[in-house]
């Protein structure tokens, strides 16, 4: 018995299912606006929702050829609630369909109902507002999107609910949505066997579901935060993020061990791992955030695999390195 048959067998009353038929904007041309690494305001772009122009109090922005919209206003357009965590620079969106979406400033990984997925572009802050790529916003908020190049207009269309009945099942709804590859989620947890009526399942087809983030354990996050606290605990979040990324960059580099623990405890780069300081380290909130953001792909020192204080570390080896950046009291190099 397939999933659709099992659903029909258990349905006592219609189950409401939302279909997200997505039109990707990854290649959306923006000829009127030059792509830049830094975001710029796009004053001539119009946003329409269900055929009506939307008045935004904050400007639409463009970065690297992508159109970005302010998270708070975009969420409000779709009836979602938004909470802002200033300390961690995170936005949490609670949608009208029961989804919980967590976005971090400069963090490419998005949390969708507890699962982690990698976006191919990251949210960012500009003028005190968090911005998200329009394509990803459409996927996460269940809307169709199309782009009119001549009019420089993005059309957003909410997808009406579909009712699963004996006559209209997942296969038929999927065909109507234009996709034969649907993924069934019940409050964010995939359930291929039983769908409870009260669970309000959603059928969505977001492209980020093809890009699950590499998992990490809480033990790894805590260890990364502890060494970050020891090495840069009295410095800024940016400094702590850079230290955490040196360790993760080493994990990815064939010249170094393959785990966070082995990188930290091997060699001479991290003396606190051998003198007891690391064991006694109690990471503060900033170090915990830096470790989490680094594990979620936020990297401010590219592929640096060394860091050192030039006032303390001197000699031919350190002078031979290529410096990527200087953050706080440390130079980060490869």
Automatic annotation (TrEMBL):
Keywords carried by this UniProt record: Signal
Domain of life: Bacteria
Domain Copper amine oxidase-like N-terminal: from-to ranges: 49-153
Positions of the Cell wall hydrolase SleB domain: 235-333
Record-annotated membrane-spanning stretches: none
Signal peptide residues on this chain, from the entry's feature table: 1-34
Keyword Protein biosynthesis in record: no
Gene3D superfamilies: 6.20.240.60, Cell wall hydrolase SleB, domain 1, Copper amine oxidase-like, N-terminal domain
Family annotation (Pfam families): Cu_amine_oxidN1, Hydrolase_2
This protein's name: Stalk domain-containing protein
Protein species of origin: Cohnella silvisoli
């Amino acid at each position: 018995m397939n999933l659709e048959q099992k659903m029909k067998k258990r349905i006592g009353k219609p189950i409401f299912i939302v279909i997200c038929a997505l039109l990707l904007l990854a290649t959306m041309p923006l000829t009127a606006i030059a792509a830049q690494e830094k975001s710029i305001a796009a004053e001539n772009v119009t946003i329409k929702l269900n055929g009506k122009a939307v008045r935004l109090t904050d400007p639409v922005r463009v970065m690297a050829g992508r159109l970005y919209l302010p998270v708070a206003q975009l969420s409000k357009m779709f009836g979602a609630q938004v909470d802002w965590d200033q300390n961690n620079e995170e936005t949490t969106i609670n949608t009208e369909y029961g989804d919980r979406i967590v976005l971090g400033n400069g963090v490419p990984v998005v949390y969708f109902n507890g699962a982690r997925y990698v976006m191919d572009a990251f949210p960012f802050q500009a003028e005190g507002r968090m911005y998200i790529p329009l394509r990803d916003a459409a996927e996460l908020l269940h809307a169709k999107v199309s782009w009119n190049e001549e009019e420089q207009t993005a059309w957003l269309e909410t997808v009406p609910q579909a009712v699963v009945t004996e006559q209209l099942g997942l296969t038929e709804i999927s065909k109507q949505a234009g996709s034969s590859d649907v993924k069934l989620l019940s409050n964010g947890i995939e359930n291929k066997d039983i769908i409870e009526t009260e669970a309000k399942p959603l059928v969505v087809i977001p492209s980020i579901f093809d890009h699950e983030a590499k998992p990490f354990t809480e033990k790894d996050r805590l260890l990364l935060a502890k060494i970050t606290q020891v090495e840069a605990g009295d410095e800024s979040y940016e400094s702590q993020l850079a230290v955490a990324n040196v360790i993760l960059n080493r994990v990815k580099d064939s010249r170094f061990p393959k785990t966070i623990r082995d990188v930290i405890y091997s060699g001479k780069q991290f003396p606190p791992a051998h003198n007891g300081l690391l064991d006694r380290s109690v990471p503060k909130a900033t170090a915990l955030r830096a470790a989490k953001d680094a594990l979620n792909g936020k990297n401010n020192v590219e592929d640096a695999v060394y860091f050192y204080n030039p006032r303390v570390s001197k000699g031919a080896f350190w002078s031979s390195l290529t410096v990527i950046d200087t953050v706080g009291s440390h130079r980060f190099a490869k």
